[in-house]
Write a structure and sequence with these properties.
With 505 residues, the chain is of the alpha+beta class. 64% of the residues lie in helices and 11% in strands.
Length: 505
């Protein structure tokens, strides 16, 4: 990511790109001068004479020096703007952001302006020395083609060289409106610099031959052919890499997403359609990440199975009749406990208790439907049907009793009553249109809560209903207890306790 690049690296990157652009301008200007002195000018006059040669070389040096001073001042101003926000590691302000995004076009435009001025100067000097106006204009056209080629390559060099800084400038989002740095324009520029301009140069050379008549154009034509081959390869390769590398990064990101890694993000380092692709990928992964977090949060609130059912089949407000077993666990003496202990201490104790409840119940195939203050209601057999829901609930009750005994070393006052009941109940979503939760309505839920209250008065602290025992395949770990009047019932109920009972203090 661009944010990982140090200030020194960013500064060096900016200056290195600037020097590359300058170097290519000097190289192009030098080759154009050599081309001019070696092949084109001898047809009109003897430029092999030292005086004439030094005149053109001197004019070239003076023009380069003056042009360099003028452009370097503008470059220095823009460099100060960029360095001001790079130094502090800040996101670019609007001005700094625009400087970075406009730099490829500005470098190309500056090159074109300098080349245009140079072409006019040298064509005028040629006409002044020879009086051949037509040939001077042809030289002007040929040199201008060289300038266009240099400007196109400078554009591609600068765009590619400044990609890390472009990524930094785009961290706050892509600029609005269509981008002038589109993929289509890049390819057009690459074609112009690698094919179009050399072909036009060949055309200019043929026009020159038509005017000069006796001049051998083999050398100029081969020079243009070689230039077209080399420059075309470099320009097309650079333009292709400018598109293929970001797309490859997005593809690699998609492979990571396919493997389940949603923490991936790609740098947005292109203001064109490619940048829209990068930004769209990041938004897509961000949406998947948010959906994953919401599913995880939803699953923690209602249970993984309920969340999966809701995602797959929607929300059922009619409810479904099913055979279930309910395990209800409630803290003994919670009101006196709050009078003796600070609320934070009680909360730590309850969280430790519920952590064990969730662990034991989920290990047995059930899920915690809700926490009710100092109690928890757990369901076995819904929303996913379980033929052995009663076995699972009774096994969880015994394991939970052992787990709670283990917590008493840290929380001596912790004590609970556990009730297990089985039977038919309706499960579904309860609530209004804007707020609802998965719940259960039926006798097993009420009976489990009543059994939990009764269990608080028993040494075993665990009671199970006769219906639950009747539904299990092996009830050897449970023994009948005396019949009890459960709260809210008119007739006594048969209840069962664990065969091995550990006495509570």
């Amino acid at each position: 990511m661009s944010g990982d690049i140090t200030y020194d690296a960013r500064r060096a990157l900016w200056r290195r790109t600037w020097w590359r652009c300058l170097s290519y301008n000097l190289l192009g200007g030098g080759l154009c001068l050599v081309f001019f002195l070696r092949w084109l000018s001898p047809a009109a006059m003897d430029l092999a004479a030292p005086r004439t040669t030094f005149l053109f070389l001197g004019a070239f040096a003076v023009y380069v020096g003056v042009g360099g001073l003028i452009t370097s001042r503008q470059d220095r101003t823009r460099t100060e703007i960029v360095m001001s926000w790079l130094a502090g590691g800040r996101h670019p302000n609007a001005r700094g952001r625009q400087v970075v995004l406009d730099e490829p076009l500005r470098q190309a435009a500056t090159s074109m302006i300098v080349w245009t001025g140079g072409c006019v100067v040298f064509a005028s000097l040629y006409i002044a020395l020879t009086g051949a106006v037509t040939r001077g204009l042809i030289l002007l056209l040929g040199a201008m083609l060289g300038g266009i080629h240099v400007a196109a390559v400078v554009f591609l060099l600068c765009e590619r060289g400044l990609r890390p800084l472009t990524a930094l400038a785009l961290e706050d989002g892509l600029p609005g409106g269509p981008s002038w740095l589109s993929v289509q324009r890049r390819l057009q520029v690459a074609w112009a610099s690698g094919s179009g301009i050399p072909l036009l140069g060949i055309g200019v050379a043929l026009i020159w031959q038509a005017f000069v008549g006796q001049m051998n154009m083999a050398g100029p034509l081969w020079a243009l052919v070689v230039t077209g081959l080399l420059a075309g390869y470099l320009a097309i390769t650079g333009a292709a890499r400018a598109v293929s590398e970001p797309v490859s990064n997005v593809r690699a990101g998609l492979l990571r997403v396919q493997r389940g890694d949603l923490d991936v993000e790609v740098a947005i380092d292109d203001p064109s359609e490619v940048g829209l692709l990068q930004s769209g990928f990041n938004r897509m992964v961000g949406g998947l990440r948010e959906a994953r977090n919401l599913r995880d949060l939803f699953g923690r609130h209602v249970g993984t199975d309920v969340a999966r059912q809701a995602v797959a089949h929607g929300f059922d407000f009619e409810g479904e009749l099913c055979e279930v077993s309910i395990l209800f666990v409630d803290v003994v003496g919670s009101v006196p406990l709050l009078e003796r202990r600070a609320p934070r201490e009680v909360m730590r104790m309850l969280n430790a208790l519920f952590d064990r409840v969730v662990e034991v119940v989920e290990a047995s195939g059930g899920w915690v439907n809700r926490f009710q203050g100092d109690a928890a209601l757990c369901i076995f057999g819904a929303p996913v049907a379980m033929p052995d829901h009663a076995d699972r609930a009774l096994r969880a009750a015994l394991e939970l009793r052992t787990a709670i005994d283990g917590l008493r070393s840290s929380f001596p006052e912790l004590d609970t009553g556990i009730g297990v009941s089985s039977g038919e109940a309706v499960t579904g979503y309860l609530g209004g249109a804007s707020r609802y939760e998965f719940g259960i309505v039926g006798e097993p839920a009420n009976e489990a809560a009543r059994l939990s209250d009764e269990a608080k008065r028993r040494p075993s602290r665990v009671l199970a209903s006769a219906a639950t025992i009747a539904a299990v395949s092996d009830a050897t770990e449970w023994t009948p207890s005396d019949r009890v009047h459960l709260r809210g019932k008119t007739v006594p109920s048969d209840v069962y306790e664990p065969t091995t009972t550990a006495e509570r203090p």
